[in-house]
Amino acid sequence: MKTGFVFEGWYSYESADRYFDETEDLTIYSIDCDLDVYAICVGEAVLKPPVEVYDARWVVEDRYSGKYITTVYGSPTVWDMPSIGAYNFKLTATTADGKAYSYEDAWYRQGAVRVTYDFTFENRPWYLWWEADYLDYAYYKELETVRHHTNKAGDAAFVTATDSLIQEITDAILDGTRDMSKLRRANFILAFVQSLEYEYDSDGTDYDEYWKYPVETLYEKRGDCEDTAILYAALMKAAGYDVALINLPGHEATGIAMPETTIGTYYLKDGKRYYYCETTGTGWKLGDYPPEYRGISATVYSI
After folding, report:
1. pLDDT tens digits for range 194-253
2. Residue 208 pLDDT
3. How far apart are alpha carbons 90 and 241 in whole angstroms?
4. In this structure, what DSSP letter does residue 158 have?
5. What distance in Å separates the CA atoms of residue 113 and residue 136, rounded to the nearest whole number?
6. How sure is the predictor about 40, in pLDDT bands with cuts at 50, 70 and 90?
7. Which end of the chain is more exposed for a tag (fewer CB within 10 A), N or C?
8. In this structure, are residues 222 and 199 in contact, taking their beta carbons and an 8 Å threshold?
9. Are the C-beta atoms of residues 55 and 25 closer than 8 Å to each other?
10. In sequence order, what are the residues at sequence separation of 6 or more whose Cβ sits closer than 8 angstroms to the Cβ of residue 184?
11. Residues paired with residue 269 on neighbouring β-strands, in sequence order
12. Is the distance from CB of 112 to CB of 133 less than 8 angstroms?
């Protein structure tokens, strides 16, 4: 291995785990046969299908966006993943008997990722940063779940207020807003969420409807109405507020329970006033209600 690289363990093609612990004993038996032993550096993907092939061609794509990255030739071969992320490898080749062969593999380059945010609240610039392991983000991307509106239980499952990463960023916000009132803090967090770029699901995924978990929205720094409404609900719930999701025809918003003295539009649910919070666009405050939704009935799910 090159100078400066650190040995992290033995790789196994058969194991579900990428590496054995570095203290694991490894015994290699070879009886009159050729044996290939690879020294694999962190950040390298070993591309080897389960059968022997010829004329191997691997198309490399970003696993989550589907964007083309490069083409790699050979089998087996090693490709250096250029940055932290998830990669799909799609192989086309020929088997020993001349038949066309295809195969897919996926590799992840893990590591700590810092995401920064700049936004404005009360005409003052604010800066916030969030750090997590990439695999925490990949965990939510890989979840097999219904990614659209279903019912109260299904929608509430996206509001992951108990996730340690959501709690960490919420604690940082609470620490920085300790001198704010409950209402002012709610508007501060709302301004932060509104600063994220709006993106239609069909522009960022292969689906017309794709609900994101809060960690996904934070990492990608963009989303549509349900993504930001869910994120705001998770942050506010982690901050100790009573929250709800407000489902309108073709739109999603968040409701925050506040005292009766609060000024603004609200929905009455279970004896509580859930004040409407618009998480798309900028400048909306708690209780502000877009005129295009006035007179339209909504379903309110307390979380």
Report:
1. 999 998 867 766 677 889 999 999 999 999 999 999 999 999 999 999 999 999 999 999
2. 74
3. 46
4. T
5. 10
6. very low
7. N
8. yes
9. no
10. 177
11. 272
12. yes
Q: In Å, what is the CA distance from 277 to each residue of 72, 131, 133, 252?
A: 48, 27, 30, 10
Domains of the chain are: 1-109 (2.60.40), 112-302 (3.10.620)
Token pair in block for residue 175: 């620490």
Could you tell me the two tokens for 94? 């020929």
Residue 295 structure tokens: 């007179």
213 vs 217: CA distance, rounded Å: 7
Cβ pair 149, 155 in contact under 8 A: yes
Hey, what are 126's tokens? 């604010």
**DSSP secondary structure string, 58-80?**
EEEEETTT--EEEEEE-SSEEEE
Residue whose structure tokens are 């025809």: 249
Instruction: Judge contact between 52 and 38, C-beta under 8 A.
Output: no
Q: pLDDT digits over 183-192, tens only?
A: 999 999 999 9
Q: What is the pLDDT of residues 55-101, one digit of tens each?
A: 999 999 999 989 999 999 999 999 999 999 999 999 999 999 999 99
Reported residue count of the chain is 303
Residue 44 CA, chain-centre distance (Å), reads 23
Q: If you ran DSSP here, which 8-state letter would residue 252 be given?
A: E
Determine the distance from the C-alpha atom of residue 167 to the mean position of all C-alpha atoms in its chain, rounded to a whole number: 15
130-185 pLDDT per residue, tens: 888 999 999 999 999 999 888 888 899 999 999 999 999 999 999 999 999 999 99
Residue 3 identity: T
Asked if 20 and 10 touch (Cβ cutoff 8 Å), the reply is yes
The dihedral formed by the CA atoms of 213, 218, 220 and 223, expressed in degrees to the nearest 10: 60
* 203 phi-psi bin (left φ>0, alpha ψ -120 to 50, beta other): alpha
Rounded to whole angstroms, how far apart are CA atoms 165 and 175?
Answer: 15
Q: What does the alpha-carbon distance between residue 174 and residue 178 come to, in Å, rounded to a whole number?
A: 6
